[in-house]
Specification:
By secondary structure, the chain is an alpha/beta fold. It contains 12 helices and 20 strands. The chain folds into 2 domains: 2-134, no CATH class; 142-412, TIM Barrel, CATH 3.20.20.
């Protein structure tokens, strides 16, 4: 529902787009801000730059090279002083609107105008200091949510585990901050309550549930079934109707790797699918076994193929993640050829996803050190784009049931 206003002096055109779970505020069609049902900032579009606020109150700025010389977006995390300045500017705008004598344009029903004004009052009740306190609240509920698949950025993350049970891949730094552990049933139950309280009315923005962290499905099967049963008790997961008035989530999602997934049987996966596990994401990285060893991945392309096949037979959808630029110039050709071969052998169909994720090297990572020792040259942006194009052009799937293929730029991840 759209509600239009003019400011008291008539010099600004304000449009509020009211939705069940969020509101957006447009100022003269040159600035757009969106907020959740608690009044917390979600995103902003100002001066052709997109700003995304995370739940722990970081601000990520995204924009495109105006000359289009780069194939990837430009992304920057604002420093603490810049973040505070930006949030102060946003709330100065919102406070002005809240205090202004807004005059409705082509007025809709009085109830809609009243609802719009109530939204502005709720938003104006926040400020940069209160938003900074949300960081502390978030950190009391979660260990860092390091990464999610792009289609799960608006999932409700439930951390049944913390960290990664392998945590030795040379290129990955996401879980170096903590040791892997599985939460007890009691601890996980308390976590669910804390998550629900943290999101409050804004929980309706979350479309699915994601069982974290890096590899929650590695836990023993009986323990995993208990965890999923608890999730289903706490939340309405489709295909439930949600007739009890609770917000309904569209399935449960999670990561797995090829070497632990290899240990689960088709029957195991069917039991998980019966508890509304919808899609499982596998970091395949490459179809080249030699390159997998270089990455210190304790799996082979054949294991990845078998893991995906087992999950597919159990009725699960899969998300396959492939790195772009990994192995540099030395592995370029074999990475392209063997990855095409592997993906085409996986029988991926509609409902499945292939993610191509550009590798961003950490200068101090084990990967960078190994590459330097082997005198492997990193691919340029253009060469990575060519590699991506080469792999995509080699894929062959039925025309009537193709998997989704998408870019996965980890720099864009926010939660």
């Amino acid at each position: 529902m759209l509600v239009e206003f003019q400011t008291g002096e008539g010099n600004r055109h304000v449009v509020l787009s009211l939705k069940p779970d969020a509101v957006s505020v447009s100022l003269d069609e040159v600035e757009v801000y969106s907020f959740d049902r608690e009044g917390r900032l979600l995103t902003a579009w100002v001066n052709d730059h997109t700003y995304v606020r995370t739940l722990d109150n970081r601000i990520i700025k995204k924009w495109r090279d105006p000359d289009r010389r780069r194939p990837w977006k430009l992304i920057e995390a604002l420093s603490a002083p810049d973040r505070q300045r930006f949030l102060n500017q946003v709330w100065a705008r919102m406070n002005d609107l809240s205090r202004d004598r807004l005059q409705s344009v082509s007025p809709p029903a009085d109830a809609s105008v009243k609802q719009a004004r109530a939204w502005l009052s709720k938003i104006a009740a926040w400020d940069s200091e209160r938003l900074e306190q949300e960081r502390e609240r978030f950190n009391s509920v979660y260990t860092p949510v390091s990464i999610l698949p792009p289609d799960q950025y608006f999932a409700l993350v439930l951390q049944a585990t913390e960290g990664c049970h392998w945590n030795r891949c040379t290129f990955c730094h996401f879980y170096r901050h903590c040791r892997f552990r599985i939460k007890s049933d009691e601890e996980f139950g308390q976590h669910i309550k804390a998550v629900t309280a943290f999101f409050g009315d804004a929980i309706g923005l979350r479309r699915s549930t994601f069982l974290g962290d890096a590899n929650a499905l590695v836990m023993p099967q009986e323990k995993l079934l208990t965890i999923l049963d608890r999730v289903n008790q706490a939340f309405a997961i489709t295909p439930k109707s949600g007739s009890d008035g609770r917000h309904s989530f569209q399935g449960i999602y999670s990561f797995i790797d090829a070497f632990s997934g290899d240990r689960k049987s088709e029957a195991d996966f069917r039991s998980l699918q019966a508890r509304h596990l919808q899609r499982v994401y596998v970091g395949v990285e490459t179809g080249c076994d030699e390159l997998l060893k270089f990455l210190n991945k304790p799996a082979t392309a054949q294991q990845a193929l078998e893991t995906v096949a087992t999950m597919k037979r159990a009725g699960l959808q899969v998300g396959v993640i492939v790195l772009i630029g990994v192995g540099g110039d030395y592995y370029n050709q074999s990475h392209v050829e063997q990855t095409i071969k592997l993906l085409n052998a996986m029988s991926l169909r509609q409902g499945d996803i292939i993610y191509f994720s550009p590798l961003y090297e950490e200068p101090t990572s084990a990967y960078a050190q190994r590459a330097a020792e082997a005198r492997i040259r990193s691919l340029t942006d253009r060469e990575r784009h060519e590699q991506l194009t080469a792999i995509r052009s080699g894929l062959r799937f039925p025309s009537d049931s193709q998997p989704k293929v998408s870019l996965y730029d980890i720099r864009e991840f926010v939660y």
